[in-house]
Amino acid sequence: MKEPIVTSPDNLSPVDAPPGLPALAAALSAGLGQDLTAAAIHPLQDAAHKAEVADATLKYRVSLPGEAPGFLLVSGAGNPDMMGRAVRNIALCRAQLSAAVAAPVLPPLTDGVVAGRHFALWSARPDFLAGGRVLRVIRRRQYTGRICDWLVALAAETRKKANTETVSGDLGTIAGDAGLPDAIRGTAHQALDRLRAGTWVPEHCFQHGDFWSGNVLRPLRGEAVPFHVIDWAGLSAEGYPFIDMARMLMSLRSPARVATRHVAALQEVMACSREDSLAYVLAALGHTGQRLEHFPPDRYRALVGQVCGFMKAL
Domain 133-313, CATH 3.90.1200 — does that match? Predict the structure, then answer.
């Protein structure tokens, strides 16, 4: 894992340095066809200090004349094309999916590059779990079924025969990680044996890559869409089923009976067994383990344990 890049005003290169508000305002004005000033852009979440972490994304609220506020994301110094990748992935999803399944994939109002970093602007939507405890409980009950049904439809529309070598390599990452519990590594070895014997014939499908409640937004009043899904930078067109659903169900604190029902619906679409679904999750986690970038290894291994424990309990 790479160490965070620490910067100061004296050693910033053009790509390292966070874009100034006037430069952002000029880029947004050109993309939107509206005249915006630097005063319309408001940093969020200590954006002025995010240059200290190499892959951090800068966040801003933008006042748009006569419209709902905009939400601006600017790529961090460690990955200046992160938002560009997200925008390209959004376009890929919306082009390949049916209208109903593509609808929650929220496109940006505009995007571009300023000071070497890709940015993208969206019309702001309400946070999924904003409000008090009672509202959060109600929304979890309201949205869990809709979100999981959408994941099932996403898998159904994008499933295709998997590359056996890719799956083997991803499972091998789990099986060979001495930092993981023996039980998890043993389950990965069993999945590898079934893969090699041909008793498990896996398939790929679209995988969001960071699917939890923080990346789901509620629609504006009058919008004909059940919810919005954001943060598509980690999309894999040759990903795995079940990992996105498992992480979302965990995030929503879904009871075991509810989670079991939704996982079973995805198993039916993928024509696979409970054992297969755990193998898919391990392969997805192994794929992530090969691409940690700035993600701490200890947190990654903790995630592996949590997701595997969740799936085995169903």
Answer: yes
